[in-house]
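Form 7-S
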Amino acid sequence: MKRKALRAAFPYTLPVMIGYIFLGIGFGILLTSKGFAWWWATIMAVFIFAGSMQFVAVDLLVSAFNPLSTFILTLTVNARHLFYGFSMLSRFQSMGKKKPYMIFALTDETYSVFCGVDAPADVNADWFYFFIALLDQVYWVLGCTLGALGASIIQFNSAGIDFVMTALFIVIMIEQWEKTRNHLPVLIGIITSILSILVFGADKFIIPAMIGIILLLSLFRRPIEQRNLNEHA
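Output:
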């Protein structure tokens, strides 16, 4: 039963594998370039497993310790997972002992796969979704470890590697802009970020911008959802 579920899940994780390995390599290189031992990348990938937050955490680790700012930043960066979790309540309800891990492993990409596929009729659905989540994390751990190991063995100029996550989000934003006529979420993000930079400065704008974006998206949630429904009708 488990092997059958694993074989069925694997093809759906291949796109995630390609992205996670290359992004993980970038994270491993970045972390090592800041003076950390290579195995820190593996530990963070196993126990944190939050792509964007891991990149942010690198700067937090080398800056002055500020627990309140770290808590607020982590909460706002990962606030979108609240909505992911709500939509997965029914699917995870029968997971039993696997449920805590499914909650932990619910990344953006894994959530996208969950939303786009259904378990085959002859495969146990709980194990099918579990293996999708597990394989995705394995790819991320592998990429982070390879990048950190490679950077610790081969010395090279890693300037600009920390831009990899920013570049990823820009590409995702452009793709979303081109695929939908409802540009309100993107405009909310851009305008709120620009206003936050002007008001709070480039060094302190992230937390206010994230809070503002979450509040505005919550406020305009119904019209956004209605426009999306009309677009796909």
